[in-house]
Specification:
Pfam families: Ribonuc_L-PSP (PF01042). GO terms for molecular function: deaminase activity. Belongs to the RutC family. Strands 1-2-3-6-4-5 form a 6-stranded mixed beta sheet, with helices on one face. By secondary structure, the protein is an alpha+beta fold. The chain is built from 2 helices and 6 strands; from the N terminus they run βββαβαββ. The longest helix has 18 residues, at about 45-65. It has helices at about 45-65, 85-90; strands spanning about 1-5, 20-25, 25-30, 70-80, 105-110, 120-125. The radius of gyration is 14 Å and the shape is globular.
Length: about 130
């Protein structure tokens, strides 16, 4: 059985999907981009601010599901320019303990929704 997870503390879905789906103890999140959920505006000041907003949106989804970044076992990071990797990684590292960080891939793509620079999705497991 699946449970739909949606929170007002992250951007609302703009299509036929939900912020996350919990099935058993496993949470599958949709990708988050840097939309400020309070204003609906994109946060594109710089790549670090953008990445922080993405991760704060993800934090809100995890919280709604009763989880934290400690529960995350896999992340997928999609970026529009691999030259931004180190700056994105610097912000990402503040949300995870390096010793217990999840598995991850980072993929450069031609375009992302709303032509943002970074999108992140996650899989988390509730212990």
């Amino acid at each position: 059985m699946k449970k739909i997870i949606n929170t007002k503390n992250a951007p609302a879905p703009i299509g036929p999907y939900n912020q996350a789906v919990l099935t058993g103890n496993t949470l599958y999140t949709s990708g988050q981009i840097a939309i400020n959920p309070e204003t609906g505006e994109l946060v594109l000041n710089d790549i670090k601010s953008e990445t922080k907003q993405v991760l704060e949106n993800m934090k809100a989804v995890l919280t709604e599901a009763g989880m934290t970044f400690d529960n995350v076992v896999k992340t997928s990071i999609f970026i529009s320019d691999m030259h931004n990797f180190s700056a994105i990684n610097e912000v990402y590292a503040t949300y995870f303990d390096e010793n217990t960080a999840p598995a991850r891939e980072t993929v450069e793509v031609a375009n992302l929704p709303k032509f943002v620079n970074v999108e992140i999705s996650m899989i988390a497991i509730k212990s």
